[in-house]
Amino acid sequence: MSASDVWRSPAGEHYRSWGREYGSTVVTLRPAVYDADTGQWSTDRNALPVEVDADVFEETYAQVPLERLRDPRITRLTGLVHELLADYERTTGRPPADADAIRTELEAVAEIPEEARKRRHGAARAAAHQGFHRGRGR
User: Fold this and answer.
1) Can you say whether the dihedral through the CA atoms of 67, 71, 77, 83 is positive or negative?
2) Between vectors from CA 133 to CA 127 and to CA 137, what angle results, nearest 5°?
3) I want to staple 28 with a disulfide (CB 3.0 to 4.6 A). Which of 18, 93, 117, 126 is the partner?
């Protein structure tokens, strides 16, 4: 369990795991809020942490799968394009001939933020690794 994990309680609330002391029987959780535009969870730092018995936590809380990173501008653009395609179909009685190609390209554009994040992460990791080896030789 890491601090980036999001868990759903039996009552439907969402929490981010905040840790557990070694040997402790209590898990500390912080309320988490979902941003539909970015697909990301954030911790509500103003809310008081919740402590749950570790056995109860393991039996009743379910981990929420994390979504890929989304850009709100791409989310908005995708919604607008889908509205335009639906309007076209309502007006003409048939979908545009290239509707499938448009949807495929929109899916490719939606992947850009996640690909950029992976590139940044990889570049930072490589730079840190390179700097570590350069510093060892001195």
Assistant:
1) positive
2) 145
3) 18
